[in-house]
Amino acid sequence: IIVLLALHKCPNTAYSADIRYRGFILTLTFLFYTAYHLSRKPISIVKSELHRNCSLVIRPADLNFTNNATWCDWAPFDQNNYQTLFGVLDNSFLVAYAIGMFFSGIFGERVPLRYYLSFGMLMSGVFTCLFGLGFYLNIHSLWYYSVIQVLNGLMQTTGWPAVVACIGNWFGKGKRGFIMGVWNSHTSVGNILGSLIAGAFVSSAWGLSFIVPGLIIASTGILCFFFLVESKFLFSWWVAEPAEAVEQHTEAISFSGALSIPGVVEFSLCLLFAKLVSYTFLYWLPLYISNVAHFDAKAAGDMSTLFDVGGIVGGITAGLVSDYTGGRATTCCVMLLTAAPMLFLYNYIGQRSLATTVGMLLLCGGLVNGPYALITTAVSADLGTHESLRGNSRALSTVTAIIDGTGSVGAAVGPLLAGLISPTGWNHVFYMLITSDLLACLFLSRLVYKEALGWCRRVPRARGFKEI
């Protein structure tokens, strides 16, 4: 309220006021999606607490258990198939998220984004807290946790199309790659904060690892309801519109119409495999570090945050490079090709020393999350405001949902495959990730070729996308 009143009373020009509002919306949406990712992270931290090596745990003298091998585990994750059960939990969330995402963009274009985001964050907070309450209510039913994950996955789909649509409504294409590269660090910041918050409680009362993030995202939902302004055009009654304002169209684009926009299909398929890799790390990296480097749950969670730190740098770098070169597809392809051998090296030498582990996690995080960040932000916004749409700003939410929804299919498949493959050895999991990176690059080959032709012909190219 104080910020908005200050902006209202400020005697500056309309252009200056517009810049101030943009900064406010950028910060607000950054906070919102940080909360979304913060509430997704606890499950990956808690896994190594739900199933532990009980021979290394000091058993309290007053506890009497008949099974010495699993006395410290949380049923039903105390059996040898615990990795498969973890995969069920991951995919309960991710499959629901992937399916819901295709419909989320359609709703997002027809419902006020402020209400849509507020409802989604409040309900995500409720379901995240309900998962944590299983600890205090002593619930050991796989069905309970799976249903909670499904419902939470559906609620989480409200976030991405809505926040990208807000940013696209407020910012032009000029520096979109850089601005969205910085802004998209909310994904990594949310993962880092989620890891640290969950790690603070995981060894003592893992239920709080979910309840605290649940309360945080619910609180941001209330903040959204009172403060979000979804489009600069809603301020037309308050401040004079900038000269760059375009005509608002009221007709939402159809699903098939969004698919026909040049570049949407290629980037969607690329993101399917890029997000497969990113989300496999999101859900399985702490457990991998715990198993291979023999860290406890908290230390493994803390170490895994370095991957997200690298992701922040990678996302910003990808945005800067693609802004400068005008080659979104080429930037993604180069990073994906470089990521493949780096993943191979991390698996084989990444645990030899602390310095090697830190360096490889930072490097792999940047190369894996850079293309993912660029596609889900600047590329989605570029395609959602493509010149073929003739200024129809209401296409942005649907295009974003199609691209991220397709990517979410990969996000669901990756952790599932990791759960099925990891019992045969972590080497096979990394081979799967390397193959996925190469396939992601393959789907961009036509767009890379078009961009290369443009450079060779020295044709002046606007940032973003022209006809492909």
Automatic annotation (TrEMBL):
<feature type="transmembrane region" description="Helical">
    <location>
        <begin position="84"/>
        <end position="103"/>
    </location>
</feature>
<dbReference type="GO" id="GO:0061513">
    <property type="term" value="F:glucose 6-phosphate:phosphate antiporter activity"/>
</dbReference>
<dbReference type="Pfam" id="PF07690">
    <property type="entry name" value="MFS_1"/>
</dbReference>
<dbReference type="InterPro" id="IPR011701">
    <property type="entry name" value="MFS"/>
</dbReference>
<feature type="transmembrane region" description="Helical">
    <location>
        <begin position="355"/>
        <end position="375"/>
    </location>
</feature>
<dbReference type="GO" id="GO:0005789">
    <property type="term" value="C:endoplasmic reticulum membrane"/>
</dbReference>
<feature type="transmembrane region" description="Helical">
    <location>
        <begin position="21"/>
        <end position="39"/>
    </location>
</feature>
<feature type="transmembrane region" description="Helical">
    <location>
        <begin position="183"/>
        <end position="202"/>
    </location>
</feature>
<keyword id="KW-0325">Glycoprotein</keyword>
<keyword id="KW-0813">Transport</keyword>
<feature type="transmembrane region" description="Helical">
    <location>
        <begin position="143"/>
        <end position="171"/>
    </location>
</feature>
<keyword id="KW-0050">Antiport</keyword>
<comment type="similarity">
    <text>Belongs to the major facilitator superfamily. Organophosphate:Pi antiporter (OPA) (TC 2.A.1.4) family.</text>
</comment>
<dbReference type="InterPro" id="IPR000849">
    <property type="entry name" value="Sugar_P_transporter"/>
</dbReference>
<feature type="domain" description="Major facilitator superfamily (MFS) profile">
    <location>
        <begin position="28"/>
        <end position="452"/>
    </location>
</feature>
<dbReference type="InterPro" id="IPR044740">
    <property type="entry name" value="SLC37A1_2"/>
</dbReference>
<keyword id="KW-0256">Endoplasmic reticulum</keyword>
<feature type="transmembrane region" description="Helical">
    <location>
        <begin position="329"/>
        <end position="349"/>
    </location>
</feature>
<feature type="transmembrane region" description="Helical">
    <location>
        <begin position="429"/>
        <end position="449"/>
    </location>
</feature>
<protein>
    <recommendedName>
        <fullName>Glucose-6-phosphate exchanger SLC37A2</fullName>
    </recommendedName>
</protein>
<keyword id="KW-0472">Membrane</keyword>
<keyword id="KW-0762">Sugar transport</keyword>
<feature type="transmembrane region" description="Helical">
    <location>
        <begin position="115"/>
        <end position="137"/>
    </location>
</feature>
<feature type="transmembrane region" description="Helical">
    <location>
        <begin position="264"/>
        <end position="285"/>
    </location>
</feature>
<keyword id="KW-0812">Transmembrane</keyword>
<keyword id="KW-1133">Transmembrane helix</keyword>
<dbReference type="InterPro" id="IPR020846">
    <property type="entry name" value="MFS_dom"/>
</dbReference>
<dbReference type="GO" id="GO:0035435">
    <property type="term" value="P:phosphate ion transmembrane transport"/>
</dbReference>
<feature type="transmembrane region" description="Helical">
    <location>
        <begin position="208"/>
        <end position="229"/>
    </location>
</feature>
<dbReference type="InterPro" id="IPR036259">
    <property type="entry name" value="MFS_trans_sf"/>
</dbReference>
